[in-house]
Design a protein that fits this description.
Helices cover about 55% and strands about 5% of the residues. It is mostly helical.
Length: about 80
Amino acid sequence: MGFSFAKLLLLLIVVGAVWFGWRWLRIREMEQKIAMERMRQGGSAKAALKAEAETMAPCRVCKAFISPGSAPCERPDCPQRR
């Protein structure tokens, strides 16, 4: 039961694998806690994007999709100028 270089190297590899595995699990756990806290405070990012989305309609003149509340374009026959 002597100590050889191979046994010490194997022991260091096993200890390192256990250490990094434990550390990885702790980081994942912390990320999940942060995500849950963010969801409790303000909802998910998808819900925030949906709340700010605006319905666009095709322009009668140029057929480009525009926001009903947008500023008029440079065309003289722009229906937004009214």
